[in-house]
Every structure is written in C-alpha cells, then in structure tokens.
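Q: Hi! First time doing this. I have a protein sequence and I read that you can turn it into a structure. Is that right? Here it is:
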Amino acid sequence: MSGVRCPGEDVQTLILVLRGLDQSSSNRGHELMSITSPIAVFGAGGKTGTEVLHRARQGGLAVRAFEHNLPEPGDRVEGVEYIRCDVLRDSFADQLRGCGAVISALGIGFSPSTAMDPPPLYTDGTRHLLEAMRETDITRIVVISAAFVVHQSSIPAWFELTARSALFNMSVVRTFGATRGVD
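A: Yes, that's right. Below is the predicted 3D structure, encoded as structure tokens:
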C-alpha cells in the first residue's frame, strides 16, 4: 500500500483507543470491545487520512470519510462512505450522527497561499468538529498527524514554526480538554 507508513504498534494503539480499551492492568487479557457504528475520519483525502481509511477497512471497521475535496470515484477506498465537508464553514452534525468515534487527520497542504495565510484549520476547524461531536454525543476522538515528521527544506522556517505551534496547542487541548471540557 502506498502513502504514509504507519508502524504496526501505532496502528494497534489507534484501534485500541477507538475500541475503548485502556492499557490498565485490570483490562489486560480482556476482549476488545467491538465497534458496530462507523468511525468518522476527517481529513480523509490527505496521505495520512487515506492511510487511516485503508487501515480501518482492513480492520473491518465501517468508515465515513469527511473531506472538502472528494477524490475521484476510482481513487476512493472501497467500502467507505464519502461526505463532502469543510470543517471551517459547513454544518455536518447530521452526517456525523451515528458514528461511534472520530479520527482527525486534518492538515493543510503546503502552497504559496497557505504559507502566506494559513487557514485556522487546527484551531477553528477542530473547535467546530468538537462542537459537532458534543451535539451528537460522540465522546471519543483520536488526532493523528504526519506534519513535519520529516524536515522539508522547501518549507520556510517561519511556516514550520507556526504550524508546529498550532500542533502543540492541539496536543494541549487533547491532553487537558478531556477532563475540563473543551470550550
């Protein structure tokens, strides 16, 4: 399979989180909870999102792929329901309803326009996503990104520093937001 390479243990951790199994000693040896409702993947059209779609389908999961630019029918992952969605502008709670968990692989591509004026995808887009999750009673989200895994000399340093800061802020929200509620 082409695309982003995901180490096996990272994919296994992702599936464990989605199935609601924590790593405490009291749960060791127990069966994984089954996921009967679909998972929602945001940013499904990027390299990371597409890899998540493939891995989820290989694991037998039902998937709804949310993406602002849908791939051509021949480029879609078989068995995935695709939904056109712009997390910055659209209302998508109705399409999200019925999903059991969310994987956010949101990211911005590097282009001169995004380098000069990056969209607030990691902040406003994720906030909008969390609001839709709250409205539909979805309580489980996994955030995954391959941004800046490998340094790319073609990306201006100021852009990389700005994006790293936004990604760090997302990890703070993910770490502390679960106990305080994300506003």
